[in-house]
Amino acid sequence: MQRLRRVAAAAVVAALAATGVTACGDDGEEGSGAKVLKLWHYESANSAMGVAWDKAIEIFKQEHPGVEVRFERKAFEQIQQNAGMIINSSEGPDIMEYNKGNATAGLLSSQGLLTDLTGEATKRGWDKALSPSLQTTARYDDKGVMGSGNWFGVPNYGEYVMVYYNKDLFTKYGVKVPTTLDEMTAAMDTFVGKGVTPLGTAGAEYPAGQLFYQLALSKADRAFVNDYQLYKNPVDFHADPLKYGAETFAQWVGKGYVSKDSASAKAEDMGTAFIAGKTPMIVSGSWWYGRFKDEIKFDWDTFLFPGNKLNAGSSGNLWVVPASSKAKSLAYDFVDITLRPEVQALIGNNGGVPVAGDPTKISDPKDKKLIENFNAISGQDGLAFYPDWPVPGYYDVLVSGFQGLINRSKSPEQVLDAIAKPYQDGVAEIKRD
């Protein structure tokens, strides 16, 4: 990990020198002396979080007259790939949404690029508002491993992976909602028999890797999750559950459940195809829910991945405050606002999963179901985090691997080889620190 830190730090310095950008201080002032809070996130305007955070910005402005909020909506991939350089520059934000997990927030915290929020979490009661399981992704040790240590981020929503389905297409083709994996494969066989590709995904971004992980989790237990995510014991990639996940994924491609064309598709392509009514099912996260609720014109609903006791999911992404932030106290105030009851209720009533919301304030039955399913998963310790979290750079490794399975250029064994070595090398590097 020390080598990774040095390489990353050197890359940041070189990039900043090349662009003439310098790191900024912590005076909270800019230009003519007006107070400024620069805020970045990557949620769509009509998503549950986008709606709620717009309200939080409105409240913040009311309570901080004279402070200019410079909000910029960024692309997920833009922050995913360039976060280290972005937040260490004078052009970076004072507060931003960032991915939780060892390979993202954990890595940046270990490099000293994020502000330690432990004192604020205690002073402002964030440690009381968030359950221990939700705090897992907020806290990182000095190696950047989640679950213990100091607070480096604050989530204000939860999330999990489920199956979204087109009820109209299910009715048209006489398909019932499956409750087991066998029933799900039978349902997909029915669609294939009618010339319909049943499952949309995206090989160029995260959805394909999450589908693989859901399949693996169908044969996993908590001990596997602790080994894979927290390095409790070595992980054998050529044994179940990972072997089962890769082999079943390949079988689903071979049977026509997943289109080979989806190897080059991005998450947005998958989502818009579902919105257009072209896809019977997608396996993806609750972050789509608010947008689907707003844009879909047909009858649709969700169900948990059939038969799984473990599901990809966790707290939502984190509000992080870069160490270079010029307006840290303002950033803390904004985080505090996002945890208020009125903002939490907006998350719930727009199809999100609030972490400190009152279920009695949720009016729509479908929204209640979304929250009830999350509570059911978290209540049985069923949140298994995400497949790309364990080590830095692993997201791109998984994307490449499962593109190879979808376009059938690699066998399951070759993909498992390809994703095993970077994982093992990354874990070894972290443990050497």
Query: What is the overall silhouette?
Result: globular
Question: Treating each run of at least 4 consecutive H or I residues as one helix, how many helices?
Answer: 19
Which band does the percent of strand residues land in? 5-15%
Radius of gyration: 21 Å
Query: Which structural class should the secondary elements be placed in?
Result: alpha+beta
What does the model show?
- With 433 residues, this protein is of the alpha+beta class.
- It contains 19 helices and 13 strands.
- The radius of gyration is 21 Å and the shape is globular.
- The model is unreliable at 1-33 (pLDDT under 50).
Quick rundown:
It contains 19 helices and 13 strands. With 433 residues, the protein is α+β, with helices and mostly antiparallel strands.
Salient structural properties:
48% helix, 5-stranded mixed sheet, alpha+beta, 433 residues, globular, 6-stranded mixed sheet
